[in-house]
Amino acid sequence: MTFAVKPAVHHPKLPLNDLGLNRRQYDGAVSTLCAGCGHDSVSAAIVQACYEMSLPAHRVAKLSGIGCSSKTPSYFLGNSHGFNSVHGRMPSVATGANLANRELYYIGVSGDGDSASIGLGQFAHIVRRRINMLYIVDNNGTYGLTKGQFSATNDKGSTSKRGVPNLLEPIDLVTIALQIGATFVARSFSGDKDQLVPLIKAGLLHEGFAFIDVISPCVRFNNHEGSTKSYDYVRHHNDPVVTADFVPDHEEIVVEYAPGEGQDVKMPDGSTLRLRKLEKDYDPNDRLSALTYVQQHQARGEIVTGLLYLDNEPTDTHAVLGTVATPLNQLAEAELCPGNDVLQKVNESFR
């Protein structure tokens, strides 16, 4: 058996970021996914975002569950922390890790089966808990590892590769995230790097739960005529409601946009998330309007992409619980176990 490996050498004049690292140094292992899989494009977008943001890999923790999508953390940021959990249980691991060390950047990569089927309850509660992380779902509407059955996000009426229609209503994770408190909600397409990379950057810096649903076609089982998760369908039914660009506080990125109203949103570190609204009446800061807009376009068979909702004053779990600023895993024994006298005072405060 042979395995493909990436070349150990690279061009000596590759551009460097502020840490003196080139983009290749943010790569991971060689992907074993099917050639053309949208998930690899999502991994590449994460690599590009972290490289451009000059994130130190040792400050990033990658988490996943089970499925094609959950294999992808092996393919980006090879020098970061990583944990591959059991099916549908990544949110529990992410919660524990974040409570123990709030100073890391957390990237959770899941799939439509991992989050919308066996892990739906876990997904709902990590949204409610407002864990400070970027949660990405690679959504292809099918179970690729088990040969192409419909997943819970597959649209009613969409057909399988053999022409069999899906008879059940889909679960829309964007709608759920909007309904139960996510403070950053976006949808994108794996084939739209110009849109996806800025969304990933903004999501990583968002103080709270940032969710991105990425339509990521399965080239083996769900990329045929009749599928609503195929490359052709998404390209012809994509409605980019909000285009976003990320502007670091020390250097402005100059890009060209379609005409539209602009809105700059300051991020916690002083950088700016720059929005270009392509719909004059769309307000990305109105949760109810965002929910209505998404559902109206779904009824017409359109896929709304872009930054759909952003809370300008978000809170995360640590703010809600009032935890100490020092990461819990850095507290000494004397602080964690202050003795019986302190315990008695705590108990008395609840009487």
Notes on the protein architecture:
- This protein has about 350 residues and is an alpha/beta fold.
- The chain has helices at about 40-55, 70, 90-100, 110-115, 120-130, 175-180, 195-205, 230-235, 285-300, 315-320, 335, 340-350, and strands spanning about 60-65, 80-85, 105-110, 135-140, 140-145, 150, 185-190, 210-215, 240-245, 260-265, 270-275, 305-310.
- It has one domain (about 25-330): 3-Layer(aba) Sandwich (Rossmann fold).
- Strand 1 (about 60-65), helix 2 and strand 2 (about 80-85) form a beta-alpha-beta unit.
- The longest helix has 16 residues, at about 40-55.
- The termini are far apart.
Strand content: 15-25%
Oligomeric state = single chain
Span from first to last CA? 66 Å
CATH topology: Rossmann fold
Helix/strand layout:
Blueprint (H helix, E strand, L loop, with lengths): L37 H16 L6 E5 L3 H4 L9 E4 L5 H11 L4 E7 H5 L3 H10 L3 E7 L2 E2 L5 E2 L22 H7 L4 E6 L3 H13 L3 E7 L15 H7 E10 L13 E6 L5 E6 L9 H13 L3 E8 L6 H5 L11 H4 L3 H10 L2
Parallel strand pairs: 1-2, 1-3, 3-4, 4-8, 7-8, 9-12
Antiparallel strand pairs: 5-6, 7-12, 9-11, 10-11
Helix pairs in contact: 1-7, 3-5, 6-9
Concise overview:
The protein is globular and about 70 Å long. It is built from 12 helices and 12 strands. By secondary structure, the chain is of the alpha/beta class.
